[in-house]
Amino acid sequence: MSSQPLMVFPVQAPVQHHAFDLVKTIIASLAACGTALQDGDVLACSSKYAGISEGRIVKLSDVTVSAEASALAERYHMNPHIAQLVVQEAEHIFGGIHGFLLTAHEGIIQPNAGIDRSNIPSGYAVLFPRHPYQTAAHLRLALQQRLGVSMGVILTDSWLMPGRLGTSGVALAVAGFRPIQDERGKKDLFGNPMQVTQRGIADAICVAAQLVMGERDEATPLAIVRNTGVRIEDVDLSAADVSIDWHQCIYIESLTEGRWVVSPALQSNSG
Predict the structure, then answer these.
(1) Where is pLDDT greater, at 227 or 217?
(2) Could you tell me the pTM of the whole model?
(3) Per-residue pLDDT at 6 exceeds 90
(4) Which own/partner pairs from 31-36 qualify as long-range (CB within 8 Å, at least 24 positions apart)?
């Protein structure tokens, strides 16, 4: 990784409520804030902002609710129109709690398939870009051609980590560098070979970017992350490059297939 200090630059951009030219808007926003992309930079772009640019905005009252969505909405006490959008968008629905469904979508386990109702007029929802990795790749190509730089792109989102309060950053899609750094077989500080560690570089960059992008009224859907140390390259990527088989995922496998085991400490305390 880079020996230079990591640098993160927030980039404000106009609030958007309808489809718009994302590339043109990014270039204008960079110029307005006096910040230029450099070779090796990674541009983080809010997945919601990218979704809006593609017109992925839905008026909830226009959504026709199916019997399946109606049943889910009743069971989990949620807006039936949102439940319908989740049914349409999610690749898998695990279950839910009051107001939310836990889903798998684009390689991420998250509530409600990433459907967002914040920072959008009341009565509307924003969906992910239809093909996030294609969106990231096209955005990177267009910016490189227009600006003459070699760079990477991340579409950022926020998600809830199991068992923790608060949201964190996660990369919905990546272009221009490999999102995972495989450490398996390499030696640790004591010369022991690493067995399972694969570093989520794209997610780590996303976390850094979201520190300056914010979640509320900051109007900062973009950030430049510099000196990440990633190797910029032309590589075809998809959600499969960051996803783990569910049977290898400790959270999913343990909670859906695993057996409840009471620890000896709890057994002794119960007596």
Answers:
(1) 227
(2) 0.85
(3) yes
(4) 35/9, 35/11, 35/224, 36/147
CATH homologous superfamily of 57-127 equals CofE-like domain (3.90.1660.10)
- How far apart CA 123 and CA 178 sit, in angstroms, is 38
Tell me how far apart the alpha carbons of residues 36 and 29 are, in angstroms, rounded to a whole number.
Answer: 10
Residue 187: the pLDDT is 59
Say yes or no to pLDDT of 185 above 90: no
CA separation for the pair 228, 7 (Å, rounded): 8
Q: What residues contact 27, with CB distance under 8 A and at least 6 apart?
A: 143, 146, 147
| Predicted local distance difference test score (pLDDT) of residue 269 | 53
Please give the pLDDT value at position 192: 66
Q: At what angle do helices 67-76 and 80-89 cross, to 10 degrees?
A: 120
Q: What are phi and psi of 36, to 5 degrees?
A: -120, 145
Q: 113-137 pLDDT, tens per residue?
A: 989 887 788 899 999 999 999 999 9
Is domain 7-55+132-270 annotated with CATH 3.30.1330.100? Answer: yes
The domain locations on the chain are 7-55+132-270, 57-127
CA–CA distance, 125 with 119 (Å, rounded to integer): 9
Rounded Cα distance, 66 and 52, in Å: 25
Is residue 26 a contact partner of residue 140, using CB atoms and an 8 Å limit?
no
